[in-house]
Amino acid sequence: MNHWIVLPVVLPAMLAAGIVLGLRHHIVLQRVFSLAGLVALLALASGLFWTASDGTITLYQLGDWQAPFGIVLVADRLSTLMVLLTAVMAIPVLLYAIGSGWDYRGRHFHALFQFQIMGIMGAFLTGDAFNLFVFFEILLIASYGLMIHAGGTERLRSGVQYMLYNLLGSTLFLFALGTIYAETGTLNMADLALRVSEAVPDQSAGLRVAAVLLLMVFAIKAAVLPLHFWLPSSYANAPAPVAALFAIMTKVGAYGIIRFYTLVFPPGLEITQGLFDTWLMPAALLTLALGMIGVLGAFNLNRLVAFAVIGSMGMLLASVAVFTPAGITAALYYAIHSTLATAALFLLVDVVQSRRGSHGSSLLQTAPPMAGGALVAGLFFAAAIAMTGLPPLSGFLGKLLVLDAATGSPLVWWVWAVVLGSSLVAVVGFSRAGSVIFWKSHASPLAGGAEAPEDTQGAAEPHAPPAPQPALPMVAIGSLLALLVAVTVLAGPINRVLAATTAQLFDPAPYVSVVLETPGKKITYKGEAGAEKAGAAPADDTGAKSGAKSEAKSDTTSEAATKPGGTH
Amino acid sequence: MEILLSSAIGVLTAAGLYLVMRLRTFPVILGTSLLSYAVNVFLFATGRIAINQPPILTDTAQGYADPLPQALVLTAIVISFGMTAVVVIIALGAYLSGNDDHIDDQPGLFHGPVDGEEDGAEMGSDLAHQVPQQEAGR
To answer: What is the CB neighbour count within 10 angstroms for residue B22?
Structure first.
């Protein structure tokens, strides 16, 4: 069995534990180990991506138990792609956290960061619905710690909102999983796919409820319109590297939608008819519109970027909601692009905020020119172009793909109108922000009227010590933007890979057969090898018992027959 | 039994939802706890209701209780317990540092100039005293 698959989960987990236990007081060692861990993770992720790139689906059976009984990790094209994206994007973010000193403004940054990575990796790799819930909780509980890193009233306050909202989301997730289990008797995704496709009509109500609940859960994570309220405050108030890392978290929601609704509830399924064109598509378009209007209306640069995240998720999900191979391909491309662009923007906002001194990220006040403003302005310009989807960068290509994919949809005019209209709004919003921060900065500080005394003071102080502007943060941001350029230049090959990924998603049969037919330890009870799990379907309970008497195999105790405590 | 169980889930959920919509953190946290109790009972029920039945295979058993939901409930209890503990601590921290336990955005969050300025200043001073503290600590 290929043990590499479990390493993206195990490595950060061990590293995080080691950092908490052994390196609590050594920030330099923490940084070294954390960074080394991420580099190793990148190597692992590239290896997994390479293995999956010829279409093979690799399975990892935890504890060697065979699939519907044990938990499995599955590395197919989509999983490895997302794992690779996370690993690639985490390194510049961590570099920024180190370079800007965010990591020692509170405790345990690196440990929490690694735990968060562990949760994200696990969520992408797992092939079991309940295990997905567990990894969601891991990434959430780490994100709670990161969210309030360095403290501060505003941050704690939005941290509480964020946590409570996500607690509700988790409860909803459990309700959804419970409904699924009650209807199908399994939680393994591949097994679910089989059982849902065989579902008899009188099960369909329960399954439809489960499908809708599950869509809501992922919609909360992906911040789709009526469920987006947690996002602006928490992303705007989170420490910058954390907000940048959170850029991948909304994608976990999108990943969940893509995974579940291609595998378990595939597009042709009668039970879930109308879920996407009637519900998700309008919600996604409204999300897109609201996000970009928020960009225009924000008074604060960090809230502006947070709303841009909502907008980009709207774009992504509009593309998903078309639910054709072209749509999913476009969505994946847009996901890669928007993860990198969002991360770069959040980091830039932090640079702006720290260099503007007391003016912070407010868009209502002009501040004296910041140190190294030209470079920051240039980077912001590039990131804003990418985010709003103007020509040279990948946002434009992503948007083109989305528009192209939408041509088959009955709502095509709506999609085109909203996407193009909201882009205009976003361009205006970003250029207004850029003008206020970088151009108007030369305005006389006395123009501010009542704020004049503070302004002059502010002008005098930041200039006196032009503070050693560390290069590392800019390198981190620059490398994220370089990745964006790479995604743009290599758009052709990337799209071919993504098209192959989508093709694999729309043909779930190999996935199901790899998961269910790979041999592993089975539950045996007195020789009844491979007997139905005692509780797999409640109606089968008595059946399993009658088969159990067939043959005597003295070394298997009844204890070993229950799933978790196998004595092998 | 079915009536009892389903109405218990319903009542817990209803009470939880009502409390979640309150404006202060304490009732909201209570509400999420009630909701998590509701979901725990619900998970139990997903394995069908079996009374006095063993969850493991034996020769003498007349029927079985589904063991999987019990394992799921155990996981769910542990997770929701941990999450509740974390949220209580952080909510307490937010209350103590902000002297206010309202859960909604504070008025004026959509910053007019004054609030925006306060925000920036607070952030700056906050970092200013956080960093030396940390450095002294090391």
So the answer is: 14
